[in-house]
Inverse folding.
């Protein structure tokens, strides 16, 4: 007998989320660059001077390449930035924490089912 229980997305393991939202590859879409630019503006507005670098990375950043319809963003923050504050501000802005290692300076966040994802944060910036 299969017993179904309701779980919040925040309570699900990555494996459960992958089953619920399987990975698909699609043709490149020019709108992905627009999504990135929109989110770049939002992140700069939300985090301001804490950001040392922000880039559109991954398969959606390469025209003509098959890709998962997820815009990956690499966000680096300045050394000695309070990562807990960064996470709180991003959660308030609609981001969902998928993984975090505050002491290691790494956080993986997602926004929207097929939207944008920040892969890492808090990496030391180049001088």
């Amino acid at each position: 007998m299969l017993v179904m229980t309701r779980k919040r997305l925040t309570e699900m393991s990555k494996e459960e989320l992958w089953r619920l939202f399987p990975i698909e590859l699609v043709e490149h879409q020019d709108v992905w660059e627009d999504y990135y630019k929109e989110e770049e503006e939002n992140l700069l507005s939300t985090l301001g001077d804490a950001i040392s670098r922000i880039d559109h990375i991954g398969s959606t950043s390469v025209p003509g390449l098959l890709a998962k319809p997820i815009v990956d963003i690499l966000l680096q923050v300045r050394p000695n930035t309070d990562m807990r504050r960064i996470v709180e501000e991003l959660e308030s802005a609609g981001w969902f924490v998928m993984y975090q290692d505050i002491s290691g300076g790494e956080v993986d966040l997602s926004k929207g089912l097929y939207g944008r994802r920040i892969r890492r944060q808090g990496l030391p910036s180049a001088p």
The beta strands are 51-57, 71-77, 96-101, 106-111, 116-118. DSSP finds three helices and five strands in the chain. The helical segments are 14-20, 31-47, 83-92.
